[in-house]
Design a protein that fits this description.
Strand order of the largest sheet: 5-4-3-7-8
Order of helices and strands: EEHEHEHEHEEEHE
CATH class: Alpha Beta
Shape: globular
Distance between the termini: 23 Å
Number of helices: 5
CATH architecture: 3-Layer(aba) Sandwich
Oligomer: single chain
Strand content: 15-25%
Low-confidence stretches: none
Length: 179
């Protein structure tokens, strides 16, 4: 996992929503930034999409920037290709850039392992949280609340410390290209 305190790795990737290139600097929030590794087909991402949209609605006005990145191999997983990412973003209501990491270099720079995977950076772009949204999983019966991510964001916004007790995200492995 990317060590806490790491400065957010820079990137510039195509946004499948706006058809423009978007950099880290374009999405950084004044007070915090959330980088999310997502994809279209993973049942874990599909399960949390509604909470992701709520989270953005609740925190964007508080100075938090959001970006989604898909790094999956689209040769073997064509359902995660850029054109379908654009459709998916519109269908589920993503109101943030949804970037395509064709080279997979950004996923590697962030040590992303699965979808969904969440990273919170403070106002100085230092990593303060990496892990899960909450304990809810498809068919788990646990309610979808975003409690872990929300608690970390609230701590950053209040000037407090984010807890060191952070749980790794669970989901589908990033679909790496075959060498």
């Amino acid at each position: 996992m990317l060590p806490l305190g790491t400065v957010a790795p820079a990137f510039t990737l195509p946004d499948t929503v706006s058809d423009k290139d978007v950099s880290l600097e374009d999405v950084v929030g004044e007070r915090a930034s959330v980088v999310m590794f997502l994809c279209n087909h993973c049942p874990y991402v599909i399960h949390v999409n509604e909470e992701i949209v709520r989270l953005v609605e609740d925190y964007e006005s508080k100075g938090v920037g959001f970006v989604g990145i898909s790094s999956n191999d689209v040769v073997n997983y064509p359902q995660d290709g850029p054109e379908l990412m654009k459709t998916h973003a519109a269908t589920v209501g993503y109101n943030f850039p949804y970037l395509y990491d064709e080279s997979q270099d950004v996923a590697k720079a962030y040590d992303a392992a699965c979808t969904p995977d969440f990273y919170i950076f403070d106002g100085e772009k230092k990593l303060v949280y990496r892990g899960r949204l909450d304990s809810s999983r498809p068919n788990s019966g646990n309610p979808l609340t975003g409690v872990d991510l929300r608690a970390a964001l609230d701590a950053v916004l209040s000037g407090g410390d984010v807890t060191d007790k952070q749980y790794p995200s669970a989901g589908c492995n990033i679909k790496w290209k075959r060498a």
